[in-house]
């Protein structure tokens, strides 16, 4: 039998983690701001369902990567508060993963939003 109280409690913990991510982590705030701008641009450009699905997936991937990166960094700081070359390598790899996803998200955004802008410009020139 499913214990719904445990499920609800675990959702509450997860929700607190999301709130803490955007409340305390500067890079997550930057990603949140950019996501807001992308959503505003998508609304203005009237993206279709498929384009929204792709854009929102990219946003979610970047946010999730930022959350994993933050968790890894906090764990590293807890395990090894001082400087250590292996901890530095772990943190660099983790933040590099976020950068890879962020760059990919920018490229996807340029393809979708840029394509829409080009369509609007070309219709205006006819």
UniProtKB/TrEMBL annotation:
<keyword id="KW-0067">ATP-binding</keyword>
<dbReference type="InterPro" id="IPR033717">
    <property type="entry name" value="UDPK"/>
</dbReference>
<dbReference type="GO" id="GO:0016301">
    <property type="term" value="F:kinase activity"/>
</dbReference>
<keyword id="KW-0418">Kinase</keyword>
<dbReference type="Pfam" id="PF01219">
    <property type="entry name" value="DAGK_prokar"/>
</dbReference>
<dbReference type="InterPro" id="IPR000829">
    <property type="entry name" value="DAGK"/>
</dbReference>
<feature type="binding site">
    <location>
        <position position="95"/>
    </location>
    <ligand>
        <name>substrate</name>
    </ligand>
</feature>
<dbReference type="GO" id="GO:0046872">
    <property type="term" value="F:metal ion binding"/>
</dbReference>
<dbReference type="GO" id="GO:0008654">
    <property type="term" value="P:phospholipid biosynthetic process"/>
</dbReference>
<feature type="binding site">
    <location>
        <position position="66"/>
    </location>
    <ligand>
        <name>substrate</name>
    </ligand>
</feature>
<feature type="binding site">
    <location>
        <position position="25"/>
    </location>
    <ligand>
        <name>a divalent metal cation</name>
    </ligand>
</feature>
<keyword id="KW-0472">Membrane</keyword>
<keyword id="KW-0460">Magnesium</keyword>
<dbReference type="GO" id="GO:0005524">
    <property type="term" value="F:ATP binding"/>
</dbReference>
<protein>
    <submittedName>
        <fullName>Diacylglycerol kinase family protein</fullName>
    </submittedName>
</protein>
<feature type="binding site">
    <location>
        <position position="73"/>
    </location>
    <ligand>
        <name>a divalent metal cation</name>
    </ligand>
</feature>
<keyword id="KW-0812">Transmembrane</keyword>
<keyword id="KW-1133">Transmembrane helix</keyword>
<keyword id="KW-0479">Metal-binding</keyword>
<keyword id="KW-0808">Transferase</keyword>
<keyword id="KW-0547">Nucleotide-binding</keyword>
<feature type="active site" description="Proton acceptor">
    <location>
        <position position="66"/>
    </location>
</feature>
<feature type="binding site">
    <location>
        <position position="25"/>
    </location>
    <ligand>
        <name>ATP</name>
    </ligand>
</feature>
<feature type="binding site">
    <location>
        <begin position="91"/>
        <end position="92"/>
    </location>
    <ligand>
        <name>ATP</name>
    </ligand>
</feature>
<feature type="transmembrane region" description="Helical">
    <location>
        <begin position="93"/>
        <end position="113"/>
    </location>
</feature>
<dbReference type="GO" id="GO:0016020">
    <property type="term" value="C:membrane"/>
</dbReference>
<feature type="binding site">
    <location>
        <position position="73"/>
    </location>
    <ligand>
        <name>ATP</name>
    </ligand>
</feature>
């Amino acid at each position: 039998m499913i214990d719904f109280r445990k499920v609800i409690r675990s959702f509450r913990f997860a929700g607190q983690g999301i709130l803490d991510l955007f409340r305390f982590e500067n890079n997550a705030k930057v990603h949140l701001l950019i996501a807001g701008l992308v959503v505003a641009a998508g609304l203005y450009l009237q993206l279709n369902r498929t384009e929204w699905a792709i854009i929102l997936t990219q946003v979610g991937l970047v946010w999730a990567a930022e959350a994993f990166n933050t968790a890894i960094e906090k764990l590293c700081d807890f395990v090894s508060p001082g400087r250590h070359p292996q901890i530095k390598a772990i943190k660099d790899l983790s933040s590099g993963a976020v950068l890879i996803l962020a760059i990919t998200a920018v490229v996807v955004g340029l393809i979708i939003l840029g394509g829409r802008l080009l369509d609007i410009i070309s219709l205006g020139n006819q």
